[in-house]
Amino acid sequence: MKLWLWNLGWVVLMVAWFGPLPQLAQTSFAAHMTLHMAVVAIAAPLLSIGAAGLRYDPVKLFPNGFAPVPASVGELLIVWAWHAPGLHHFARHTTIGFVIEQSMFLAAGVWVWISAFGGEQPRTQARSGAGVIGLLLTSMHMTLLGALLTMSPRLLYSHHHVGAGLDPITDQHLGGAVMLVVGGAAFLAGGLWLTRDLVHSTVLETQKQT
């Protein structure tokens, strides 16, 4: 199963990066956000869960560098920074900007997901609890940014004026909705899955003690 998830994660990543989305994202914020979510909310969790607990799991090698809550904060800073108009336009209009942006999105996504799901298996209650907090915090900031983009009354990204196929403000609102629904839901689902594991392990520990 882990090998299947690992391979599927790479397939999703290759389709996202080498399919039509990068070209479409040059003029469409909705396409950009679809690409972003494919990387951080689909490929990153598949790769991370596929690698969790295995020999080269970075959480086992460097546990102090993969604490879920700091990873969530780091991911927040990266995502919000790259959605500021200046950096966003840099990524849309230059190859080097696009490569840096996408690399940082993947690294940030894997950082959060592997911090939550990685390490010694089965996970300790402390790591599962921290993972729940980290993923739920990420879900909250994804939802907040998506909501702000969806409800913004003004256009933030001027490159939408050519070829997007939608009215620019509608395109921006659609992109925000993609982040709101896909990003918020994916990280929320991960947090709820870890909550299930945490409750299960707590029940088993209680039963042992009694």
UniProtKB/TrEMBL annotation:
Presence of keyword Iron: no
Q: Please give the start and end residues of each transmembrane region.
A: 35-54, 66-84, 96-118, 130-152, 172-194
Q: Taking the first listed entry, what is the main subcellular location of this protein, grouped into a coarse class?
A: membrane
* GO annotation, cellular component aspect: plasma membrane
Family annotation (InterPro entries): Caa3_assmbl_CtaG-rel (IPR019108)
Matching Pfam families, A to Z?
Caa3_CtaG (PF09678)
Q: What keywords sit in the KW lines?
A: Cell membrane, Membrane, Transmembrane, Transmembrane helix
Q: Where in the cell is it found?
A: Cell membrane
User: Its topology with respect to the membrane?
Assistant: Multi-pass membrane protein
Protein's recorded name: Cytochrome c oxidase caa3 assembly factor (Caa3_CtaG)
Q: Which organism is it from?
A: Roseimaritima ulvae
